[in-house]
């Protein structure tokens, strides 16, 4: 593992242990086994390092959405959505500490928004891609013609995000809510 990767991994560890506010460059350098000067050789600002953690260390939803788009017409829509919902909940649970800190820290948020503008990325893309999957299933008759795929995508992602937030606040136990979310959603999506 190269120095830069070691620093990003250490930042991820420190953020998870201490929280974003207490994750200082001194703590991160110590955890990475390097000096702060070396840290700043790889990252000109603390914000850049935190953005690297978010982009490189967090589980991305893109693989789950890509897998989902390849499932059009295969398995059942409910099975496909349950697999995706589990991945979305895991993503939100893992990224919540950093995301919450990012939203609370103005300079980080501005840096993140600038990066999204440069790359064309953003948290809205998985919702749009999920809507596309549902629209494709709708075209072949596995989702009702009167269903709104974009609204359904937003509802499922919102439920997954909410579940992750609740799990961060209270012990909800190991229960799997994905089947319940999807069953409820499917009641409104199914062909009539």
Automatic annotation (TrEMBL):
Keywords carried by this UniProt record: DNA-binding, Transcription, Transcription regulation
Domain HTH tetR-type: 1-61
Gene Ontology MF term list: DNA-binding transcription factor activity; transcription cis-regulatory region binding
SUPFAM superfamilies xrefs: Homeodomain-like, Tetracyclin repressor-like, C-terminal domain
Pfam assignment, any one: TetR_N
Feature: DNA-binding region: 24-43
Record's keyword annotation contains DNA-binding: yes
UniProt-listed InterPro entries: Homeodomain-like_sf, HTH-type_TetR-like_transc_reg, HTH_TetR, Tet_transcr_reg_TetR-rel_C_sf
Name by which UniProt lists this protein: TetR family transcriptional regulator
Organism from which the protein derives: Planotetraspora kaengkrachanensis
Record gene name: rutR
